[in-house]
Amino acid sequence: MQKLQLDFQSKKLEQEAQARAILQERQRLVRDMHDGIGGTLASLIVRVRLGKSSKEETENELQSGLTDLRLIVDSLDHVGQDLDMVMHMFKDRIEPQIEASNMELLWEYDSQLNALAMDAESTLHVFRFLQEAVTNAIRHSEAQTI
After folding, report:
1. Cα dihedral sign, 132-138-142-146
2. For the chain, which end, N or C, has fewer CB atoms within 10 Å of the first or last residue's CB respectively?
3. How many domains does one find in the chain?
4. Residue-number span of the structural domain to which 118 is assigned
5. 23 φ, ψ (degrees, to nearest 5)
């Protein structure tokens, strides 16, 4: 009887821990969407209403929001994977964007980083950092190679 009670309590604690983890991940996801996409779109709406956003700027901001949404989803798909897998996934996503800009991608990174396990939040930070660097290079560098 005592073993059954302990098993029941143990399962109940596991379920509560899992429910808390799910809630925390949902809150993080909502925060990421609010801070990233939400801020971008809210700012864009104000500028469009005031006539302070050109067609090109509007298109760039919408593309940026869409890219951020994709990065958020991708970060969730790669939870617990090592940095190597995360980097390869990013490379596959970014390469067409670079090629469409008539640029070449040279891909190198330190293989010693492969052992780092990535959670969703860390993965999203890496994706956003790299995406911003690539976007800035495409828009401003006039380079032929990234």
Report:
1. positive
2. N
3. 1
4. 2-141
5. -60, -45
For residues 113 and 144, the answer to whether their CB atoms sit within 8 Å is no
pLDDT, position 145: 92
What confidence tens digit (pLDDT) does each residue in 83-111 have?
A: 777 788 888 888 888 888 899 999 887 77
Threshold 0.90, pTM exceeds: no
CA end-to-end distance (rounded Å), the chain: 66
Residue 18 lies in a domain: yes
Residue 19 to residue 25: CA distance in whole angstroms: 10
- Residues 32-88 pLDDT 10s: 777 777 877 888 888 899 999 898 888 888 887 887 777 777 776 655 567 777 788
Task: Over range 137-141, report the average pLDDT.
Answer: 88
Residue 146 covered by a domain: no
According to the 3-state scheme, what is the secondary structure of 62-87?
HHHHHHHHHHHHHHHHCCCCEHHHHH
